[in-house]
Design a protein that fits this description.
The chain has 109 residues and is mainly alpha-helical. It contains 5 helices and no strands.
Amino acid sequence: MKTIYSHQNLRSQVLATLGMSNESPEEQDNFLYQVESIAQQRMARVVPELLTRTQLSQAGAMKENGASDEAIIAWVERHIPAYNELLQALSLDVAEEAAHGGAFQRAED
């Protein structure tokens, strides 16, 4: 599975923000997974605002026709050039919130 933490710089930034640079790789991966999951949820709220109605219809049709989440995300990435940068920024925001005593908050909160 593709992860935004394939970029070592972002991984290092998030771990440093969380104060987890010296933790075990397993613990780091656990927290990175949580941060990315929350960032993905938040991104799901932002994406519809960035797409046109036609694009939203196309994405909906893909979902209805059984396209995988990975295929839909790849399609969105092609239609929103700054997708990865936005996701990375959201990940850093989630890490900052957690570092300042905020509990991980789900997108529904």
